[in-house]
Specification:
Length: 1016
Amino acid sequence: MTTTIPSAEKDFEGLIVAELTGAGGWVAGDPKGYDAELGLYAEDVVDFLSETQPKTWERLHKLTGGETAARSAVLKRLAAQLDRAGTVDVLRKGFSERGVSFSLCQLRPAHSIDPDTEARYAANLLRVVRQVRFDPKSGESVDLVLFVNGVPTATAELKNRWTGQQVEHAIKQYREDRDPRNTLFARRAFVHFAMDAELAFMTTRLEGKRTAFLPFNQGSGGAGEPGGKGNPGVADGHPTSYVWREVWDRDRWLELIQKFVHVEPADPAKKGSRPTVIFPRYHQWHVVVSCQAHARVHGAGQNYLIQHSAGSGKTKEIAWLAHDLSTLHQDDDSKVFDKVIVITDRRVLDRQLREQIAQFEQVAGVVRSVTQGSSELKDALGSEQAKIITTTLQKFPFVLKALDDEALKHKRYAVIVDEAHSSQTGESATDLKEALGALRPEDLDLDEDDGTPPALLARLAARGKQPNLSFFAFTATPKGKTLELFGTRDAAGQLRAFHTYSMRQAIEEGFILDVLANYTTYEQLRRLEDKAGKELEVPAGQASSRLARFAELHPYVKSQKAAVVVDHFKRVVRPLLGGEAKAMVVCESREEAVQWKRALDQEIERHGHDDVKTLVAFSGEVTVRNVEADNAGMSYTEPEMNKQGGKPLPEAKLPEEFDKPAYGVLVVAEKYQTGFDQPKLCGMYVDKKLTGVNAVQTLSRLNRSHRGKDSVYVLDFRNTGEEIRKAFEPFFGRTEGVPSDPNVLFDAADTVTNFGVINDAELDAFAAAWARLEEIDEDKRHAVLSTSTQAAYDAARDLDSDTRFALREALNRFVRFYGFLSQALPYIPPRTEVLFQFSKVLMKRLASDTPDGGLDLAGDVVLTHYRLQEVGTEKIALGDEDVEPLKAITGDGTGAGGRGEIPMGLLGELVELFNERYGADLGDTDMLKVATDVRDTIRDKEPGLAEQAANNSREDFVRDRDGMLIDAAMTVDGDRDRQAALLKAFLDDEDFRARAGQLIFGAIFDSYQGGQQAEA
């Protein structure tokens, strides 16, 4: 017996139709049933209308004179309505003939209370038809058409790789052989699939050779999992079987029509603009139905972290999810959520989200946008009609004062958080939970009543998980804290996203550009001359950063960098996009932004580049402090520096102005580095240290796609390629985290109280004062809290400067830890909440004693040598190494375990270290870099050093460490030439080794005595 392997295209068609008409809930149709003139499967139209609406059909009989006339009239009228309003609108809203209204599709009710509606839903007729002849003249046919009650909703061209045909041939067929003016393609089917057994693509508009097809694939890792483009293999079918088994499933397809397919109106500002049909990409659809399915089963009180890269279409995902959750019911017909609240902490994104969610609204009044304050928000929360509320996180503190309706606290809320990061891990998020959360002080599992006032207990109750609140947190770059608050714990105990669409997949599918593909780094060689003498002692960490800042702000340094930027922009960036490409300069500080803008304008004027204009973006007013600058002491604001025709340019107008062809370069300082969508950005010049999430978010301003944009360029003056790779690596696939040790919080609290500044009596007095706050006028509350912390404040000021600094560090550490961990831990003693509030007040009072500006080195140093040289251009590759899970908090909470800084040093010595680091061929080995890298390597490899530091003096601790130094020099990260140079220095130069040992092991010893790092 011979086994025949199905290899023809018709075999692939047959398999799909067989599965659809089996478990999929469809019926097969005869291609002869399609009326190409009307663009309808006429028999199904008549059958659905007459069977589901017999009385209405009978009324039309009487008006038209019988069955045949009624049939002809209704089909012609329906075709005309479809031509005018479109398939989606008519399927949702129905149509009328001679004043008789018909429903063309019964959409699924949110609950099963009405049996008649359920029966009409079951009567929907979904038909799949093979080889439909769409053009009577040419006889051409399309492989599959999906009909709903006789109306074409989708077409599909299928290819079989066994015959040498694949998905690209299907795409070509749509582009070259399908007339976009044909009724089936232009005014009936709202989506067209090109597919083979391995890959799927789709489009909602045929435009000949200009037709744009989007990937409709799961990703190589599978649905909701990290990976690249494509689909994984499956054991029981083809890689693309999810299309007909899931997406084309009868109920899912009707749900897509009901909730997902969206028609964006034409843009009146654009000539020739037409309405655009939006059909979700696979991951957009899948994340919504995944959240929906989980919430339907588990109800309120859950957290969902959605890690979706830039390019995922996150705004639309949020809009679809909000509308879906607003009508979600459980199997017993009870509503899962009473309200859906969509929150962002960026006002630009808030406006974009509001507009998108409002566009998806099908019933007027369901969406309420809160842009004013507490009364508007309270009204929206109490409204029966408003189901979806859009607002910013900053408005929720006002709600605490306005919400006196206890009923609101007993409703169930779905809170969708856009760009979930540190703002959702602090006090604003607790304000939200306190306003809406159902957990009350009496619900806390307390060992005993310790006298903590109800107001503070309410604050404590609001910090944890609330049984009536579910959070759906979206972000492309989750931090360790975000993972711990919103992440899902896997079988190995690690924290991960509920759903992932990775940066890798977005790049490989072409939705964003790879910003690391053309990455050029520069080395700065500079020497500073010490004018202060060898006896001036300053804090080393502060002095090092001030020395670096002094060099960066030097006018000569800025002029050299400006020359590089203007030349590169003119040669490489500006010619892109037909001469409309733009670039961004990213600065460390507002003062640097001012000097960058001036340096660029001077360079442009010097060379007569009239076709390049610049803008600058920074907040507030900045005064130039660098005494070397020719504008020292002058003050600047963004609007003044961006004057147009002699008039200041309002900050709100800057994005619109920058979009104009005349402007090429935007200089930014902590503004527009995130949440700024300018797809014409093709170049970035980085003059700022970038790490972690900040590096990814900043450089990702370049990744937005634009017609004709196929490459971007980065020139980086401050970071190495390896540093940028390490910043991006955790977010390329799926970011994972490990849970925090709860004891670090209580160790941090003990560290604060061990200073002896805060005692129990003062905490009791503070708690009593807090309990009276509601009775006190708002303008007098500050004085009451200050009085209750006065004794501790006086005691802190009596400490010597080093101990007082250590106390401030301990307070800051405890406040940061508590603000986050109190939301993640299942139990917090009420007394810890009192200490937290007390510490916040005391910390602010102590901070106000520190003079602004810190260390001033003006006049003590002078820049004598400077050279800017290109290191090289590379494509920074990602995904080749295992990534360590992120931690929300590192260390043990006592201050031990930090990196450790060189605590004090002579200014002259620090200048030498600075020169050795940045002027390798102008001076000695780069000492400060050595100290940093070797210190970190030793700490990672030698965990026993912590115990040694606890049991020895500093002098004994740093003694006889040559072996560890040499071992570290051999294994420290870096290129081989550098490692060889380090090893040679440690082996051959006894003075170098001794000097390095004192600095490195002194820093390690001090790190175990104090200094703690946690994620900001």
